[in-house]
């Protein structure tokens, strides 16, 4: 078989079709400005603002000649239930030998409305289960020997040093549904003071947002109501009263990744939850650029980015619109510009490219999960997912971190493009953040589809790392992630070119991508 052009000359893509210079940075940023404008009110899933932003994306796709690939034109409708926890009408207390301690929601604990309907009332004993990691495949199970039935399970984030971050984060993401299947009634996740990424006051502000779950119960994590809560890190000590254990000590152990014990707690947790539930229709946007190879055009390389944001929420400094400019209007803007590059490329695509502009990501990767579980093209025909979420254009792009490159054969095209563009691959500087399972690519991974998630490369302990950390602490998921913040659009143009080049290689390779033999995620491909 003749080898299809496995690379493409960068120069071919460097000018417009007419050979005129184009302000590509300005073009990309103009999409971000349009999508993240105040008029779109933060693009909450199911909102008018999302609808307006979606129309913009569809107009762009149409103008580029992309074909509709939804179940209703470019749209794939999804039925959600919106659940708002009514904090003022809910109550919680700890009950122990010393009496009752009344708790304030959400000041002391935040109840999640995601996953499924919240239980109306819980009065249950509590049990501490260390890191709460169920990983029998590596001989680690924090729940071994603990009686979970009817319990509220309390865990601390983190895990033993000897287990890969990937494995730990996977166990964490499957934890609530696994515990529900064991008969536990709730899960409280604690963080050590060192682990705090978003300050508790901001967490409280975000908790006013309604949560979503699938109207179709078959798609939910747990068939039964299950309580999911987070506790104020400054007050976690109260949970351990009467046990002879001290939270500060346990937090120190967790921070050093040493072994944590499991033991029953001395108090019961009583919670009454008031919630408002309403149906909420929403939709993904799906468009396709058909491939040209007779056989391979029936396969799809998925390019994904979520369009939804946090909508209108608790005001900060008088601003209530959570514009989500970098998270993730920027990613959707990149998809539009990549579509333009592919369309004008002189290299023909063998496989088809499916552009998935997703909803419900901020509500728990829901739009991508729906798309993967109820796909509009055969699930097996999706050969890879290449995802954009919050590639931060706040410092120069000197290297790329294609998260997941060590897990599948997608690492090879990424490495080749890195060499070609002199943008070396930098390993994820903070693997403990587990970003591989924290954006839409994880929905694809769980269905066995190899994926990459593109980030600006930087090393820990550098000025870039400081800038990124400051952005996360002060701007991430706040009204300040807007069009007024400092930005370097020209740097994202380079990243867009990088991903365009990777897309072409994946689309035109003779073989579809495969998980590496030793990849943890290969199991999902084998299960299907
Ligand atoms: Zn995001």
Summarize the structure.
The protein is α/β, with parallel strands linked by helices. The protein is built from 13 helices and 21 strands.
List keywords for this structure.
disordered N terminus; 528 residues; 13 helices; 23% strand; eight-stranded mixed sheet; alpha/beta; nine-stranded mixed sheet; binds zinc ion
Q: Your description of this structure?
A:
With 528 residues, this protein is α/β, with parallel strands linked by helices. It contains 13 helices and 21 strands. It has helices spanning 10-13, 24-35, 48-63, 165-181, 200-207, 247-255, 325-344, 366-373, 411-421, 441-446, 463-474, 489-508, 522-527, and strands at residues 67-68, 75-85, 91-96, 99-103, 109-111, 121-129, 134-135, 140-141, 152-156, 186-190, 211-214, 227-231, 262-272, 275-289, 300-306, 312-316, 319-321, 352-358, 382-388, 400-403, 451-456. The strands form four sheets. Strands 1, 2, 11, 14, 15, 18, 19, 20 and 21 form a nine-stranded mixed sheet that branches. Strands 4-3-13-6-9-10-12-5 form an eight-stranded mixed sheet, with helices on one face. α4 (165-181) links the parallel β9 and β10. The longest helix is centred in the middle third of the chain and has 20 residues, at 325-344. It is globular. The structure holds zinc ion. Residues 306, 327-328, 361, 389-390 line the site of zinc ion (ZN).
């Amino acid at each position: 078989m003749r080898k299809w052009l496995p690379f493409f000359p960068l120069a071919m893509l460097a000018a417009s079709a007419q050979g005129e210079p184009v302000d590509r940075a300005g073009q990309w940023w103009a999409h971000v400005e349009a999508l993240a404008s105040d008029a779109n009110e933060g693009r909450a899933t199911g909102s008018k603002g999302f609808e307006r932003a979606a129309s913009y994306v569809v107009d762009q796709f149409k103008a580029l000649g992309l074909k509709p690939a939804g179940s209703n034109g470019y749209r794939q409708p999804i039925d959600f239930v919106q659940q708002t926890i009514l904090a003022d009408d809910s109550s919680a207390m700890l009950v122990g030998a010393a009496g009752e301690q009344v708790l304030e929601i959400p000041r002391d604990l935040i109840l999640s409305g995601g996953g499924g309907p919240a239980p109306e009332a819980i009065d249950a004993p509590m049990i501490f289960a260390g890191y709460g990691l169920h990983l029998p495949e590596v001989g680690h199970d924090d729940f071994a020997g603990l009686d979970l039935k009817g319990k509220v399970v309390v865990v601390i984030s983190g895990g033993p040093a000897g287990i890969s971050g990937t494995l730990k984060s996977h166990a964490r993401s499957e934890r609530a549904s696994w515990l529900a299947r064991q008969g536990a009634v709730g899960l409280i996740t604690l963080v050590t003071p060192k682990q705090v990424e978003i300050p508790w006051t901001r967490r409280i502000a975000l908790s006013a947002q309604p949560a979503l779950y699938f109207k179709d119960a078959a798609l939910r994590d747990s068939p039964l109501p299950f309580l999911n809560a987070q506790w104020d890190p400054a007050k976690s000590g109260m949970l351990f009263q009467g046990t002879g254990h001290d939270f500060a000590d346990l937090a120190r152990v967790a921070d050093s990744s040493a072994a944590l014990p499991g033991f029953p707690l001395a108090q019961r947790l009583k919670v009454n939850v008031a919630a408002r539930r309403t149906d909420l229709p929403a939709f993904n946007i799906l468009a396709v650029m058909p491939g040209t190879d007779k056989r391979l055009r029936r396969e799809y390389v998925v390019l994904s980015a979520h369009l939804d944001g946090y909508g209108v929420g608790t005001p900060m400094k008088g601003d209530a619109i959570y514009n989500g400019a970098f998270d993730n209007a920027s990613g959707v803007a990149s998809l539009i510009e990549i579509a333009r590059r592919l369309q004008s490329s002189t290299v023909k695509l063998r496989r088809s490219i499916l552009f998935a502009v997703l909803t419900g990501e901020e509500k728990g990767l829901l739009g991508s999960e729906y798309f993967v579980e109820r796909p509009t093209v055969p699930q097996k025909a999706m050969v890879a997912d290449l995802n954009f979420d919050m590639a931060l254009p706040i410092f120069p792009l000197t290297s790329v971190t294609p998260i997941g490159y060590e897990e599948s054969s997608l690492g090879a095209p990424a490495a080749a493009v890195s060499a070609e563009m002199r943008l070396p691959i930098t390993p994820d500087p903070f693997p403990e953040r587990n970003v591989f399972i924290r954006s839409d690519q994880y929905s694809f991974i769980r269905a066995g589809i190899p994926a990459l998630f593109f980030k600006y490369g930087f090393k820990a302990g550098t000025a870039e790392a400081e800038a990124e950390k400051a952005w996360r602490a002060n701007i991430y998921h706040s009204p300040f992630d807007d069009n007024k913040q400092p930005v370097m659009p020209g740097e994202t143009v380079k990243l867009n070119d990088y991903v365009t080049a990777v897309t072409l290689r994946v689309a035109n390779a003779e073989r579809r991508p495969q998980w590496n033999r030793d990849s943890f995620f290969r199991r999902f491909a084998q299960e299907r």
